[in-house]
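Field reference: sequence -> structure
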Amino acid sequence: MNNTFIHETAVVDQGAQIGEGTKIWHFCHVMGTAETGKNCILGQNVFLGNKTVLGNNVKVQNNVSVYEGVVCEDDVFLGPSMVFTNVINPRSAVNRKEEFKTTLVKKGTTIGANATIVCGTTLGEYCFVGAGAVVTKDVKPFALMVGVPARQKGWVSKSGAILGDDLICPETGEKYSLTNGFLRPL
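Structure field:
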């Protein structure tokens, strides 16, 4: 049994690949070459552009547009009204569709409400982008990013808990190691 749900007000163009167990809610639009993995959730008013890819278990909250060039790996969380871009220097009178830049959102990443991700960046595994932050450059795995422009404020665990100086997750007890500026689970 597929158990995929597409609300009657959603538009899913012919050719779109929708994974088993995915739920697409009110007023969404999924373009014909978009792909979702299994068990994704697209909240109200979500747009998935052509050539976008969502891995398994991706949660896209209300009012998010995922434009061509964006790839989200498994277990990514896209907060309400967060924004992706796909052109560095857009102009209404200049067609730059051949200049779309790829944005890669790695496994387990969380992007908070109203954050902006400038195109051409890679967000490392399990990083956490705070609400309203503006990411203009690549983000390290497990980094906690806040502000405009976004700057690293600390580290988070796989479960999203902020790590203290001991680098032990306060929720799970998982231990981490910091080597050459990169955090890794032990």
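Note: The longest strand covers residues 151-155.
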